[in-house]
Amino acid sequence: MTEQPDATIRPGPQATPAERAARGKAARRDVPRSSHAEFTPPATRPDPLGILEGQSATRVPELLPIRYGRMTESPFRFYRGAAAIMAADLATTPNSGIRAQLCGDAHLLNFRLLASPERSLLFDINDFDETLPGPWEWDVKRLAASLVIAGRANGFTDAERADIVRATVRSYRESMTRFASMGHLDVWYARIDADRLQEVAAEQLAKRGRKGVARALAKARTKDSLQAFGKLTELVDGQTRIAADPPLIVPLTDLLPDAERSSLVEQFHELIGRYGRSLASDRRSLLAGFRLVDVARKVVGVGSVGTRCWIFLLRGRDGDDPLFLQAKEADTSVLAPFVGASEYENQGERVVAGQRLMQAASDIFLGWERVDGIDGRRRDFYIRQLRDWKGIAQPELMVPRGMRAFGEVCGTTLARAHARSGDRIAIAGYLGRGESFDRALTTFAEKYADQNEQDHQALVDAVRDGRITAAETETDSS
Question: What's the pTM?
């Protein structure tokens, strides 16, 4: 079910709000909301391990066992690395034909605390490696299934998981209805900040939960370049260098011989200078005040393990003025075979454009560049700060009430992100005010969690049988 690329996902200028709402309601005739409960893998379903191995073909070979090791650890960790598998599955499910900019990997851990350029703490979507325009339902389904998988890991009952998913999808639906009644600027400026999170905690969580939210907010504010500087660096012969923690962090001095290393360092100097052209002029001027000090290769996440990721230590006014940047390889989105190719030739620009469109506020150093590697292959990268007030949820510590509240905030956040790019009035018209879509996704999420468990077990079996090599899992806080 391959869709053709469509850069225009907004309605035409002649469409009135009433016409747009009617378009959404009319879509129910061809794709009833109850049909979203469906998930039956076809007999021609691609081998999920084949999909993973296909991705591995272009990745750093020595890092692949880390990826597989992390994915074998649990069904939830498998799910985090299986966006490509789910993209192929979602392409077989019903969709309303209404498009929006998608995150492409909207599982619950990709909703986090982030800093705005004005130094406010916001709650927003974090990871946009797979972003592309596509059916808005796909993001909602990936979020819903992630909550079921996390809930099962915590031992939640069927009823508790169903309550969490219904509340999350209802939050998305009701938020979209609210955004449909708002003007463009009001939608654009909408955001969830720390104060709103504390209000939600006060309304829905017990004392312990409220204290947990307060601690998470306080901790996120400590995660900046200074904190990273203290944690990730050491003095070597009087010079500040990135500390080795192989295989997760490997400084360039330990990775390559002198001749190749000198050539690559020169390329990185050029990369930082060229990438600055993708920033606004004021931020380009700010970047120009820093100089490159050291470089290391870093392993990040679960699904991204094996892609090329570099961290750069830069120095500003003096040694107490550090900046850590992360350059992450951007490949073709896993959604592309099913929704069409990106309008951007550079995959890094695709990621940055999607992030800027969906986030309420993006990192001031978010940009992109293309680099010729030492192997002669040209690769696209996007660059952002390594740490900037980031805080991540810990679903394994959540009780049902806490995961329900977290899901509701995620639902609102995702609706706001889709409302900025897609036809929010048509989406709201399709969803309506009843609970048909909420109930359907509750069923879908359980069915897909079953499929995810089967796929996870297939990977575990492949590792046991020697088809795939997996390393022992390493600590991963991303």
Answer: 0.93
